Amino acid sequence: VLRVPLWTLGHGRELGRDPEATAARVREEVGVPLFVKPANQGSSVGIHKVSRAAALLPALHDAARYDR
User: Fold this and answer.
1) How far is CA 14 from the centre of its chain?
2) In the prediction, which pLDDT does 15 show?
3) Residue 54 region, left (φ>0) first, then alpha (ψ -120 to 50), else beta?
4) pLDDT score of 51
5) CA–CA distance, 8 with 59 (Å, rounded to integer)
6) Counting C-beta atoms within 10 Å of the first and last residue's C-beta, which end of the chain has fewer, N or C?
7) Considering only CA atoms, which of 7, 43, 40 is closest in space to residue 26?
8) pLDDT tens digit sequence for 1-59
9) Judging by beta carbons within 10 Å of its beta carbon (0-12, 13-18, 19+), is residue 60 exposed, middle or buried?
10) What is d(CA 32, CA 51) in angstroms, rounded to the nearest whole number?
11) What is the DSSP letter of 65?
């Protein structure tokens, strides 16, 4: 059995409307630590390992630079 980790999807427009609420939703749905990855990029572009809650919002903003 291969266990699939928790995940959630966010959009740049959601992040643009209310960044704090977006980060809070991601923390609630997935928890920390987590990885942030642009959905339509390769295996390393815009990827961040987020070990503490304060690092989540900057990681989301960076990932949004590479994908919507």
Assistant:
1) 12
2) 94
3) alpha
4) 97
5) 15
6) N
7) 7
8) 899 989 999 888 999 999 999 999 999 999 999 999 998 877 788 899 999 999 999 99
9) buried
10) 6
11) T
Residue whose tokens read 């642009």: 38
Distance CA 23, CA 56 (A): 7
Place of tokens 């994908």: 67
Q: Tokens for 8? A: 């959630």
Crossing angle of helices 56-64 and 19-30, rounded to 10°: 110
Contact between 21 and 10 (Cβ < 8 Å)? no
Structure tokens at 45: 């572009």
* SS3 label, residue 49: strand
Contact (CB, 8 A) for 19 and 61: yes
Phi, psi angles (nearest 5°) of residue 17: -70, -45
